[in-house]
Amino acid sequence: MPSMNLLAMASPGGGAEGGASSMLSFLPLVLIFIVFWFMIIRPQKKQQEKRKTMIGAIKRGDQIITSGGLFATVKDVKADRVVATIADGVKVEISKASINGVVEEGS
What we know:
rod-shaped; alpha+beta; single chain; 5 strands; SH3 type barrels; 2 helices; 48% helix; 5-stranded antiparallel β-sheet
C-alpha cells in the first residue's frame, strides 16, 4: 500500500491549477500561429491584392511581360485574357494569369 500513498501525493491538488496549466501549454502554439500570420500569410495577401490591381489596370498600349519571358504590347483587353502583339503582324492571346507585370516606360 505504500505505493498508493505516493500516487495520491503526486496528483494535483485542485482543478484550477490544472486548467491554467493546460492554457499555458497552448500558448506556444498560438504564438507560432501569430508569427506565421505576420511573416507569411499577411504579406502573401498583400502581394495577391497588388497583383490583382495591376492585372485589372492593364489597358490598350501597355507593355507587358509574361511568365514565359515574352514582351508584348496590349492591343485588346478581354475578361480573362489580353490580345497582344509580340512582333510586327504577330498577335497572340495571353491569359491574364500568365502576365508577370507591366513594363515601365523607362525600362
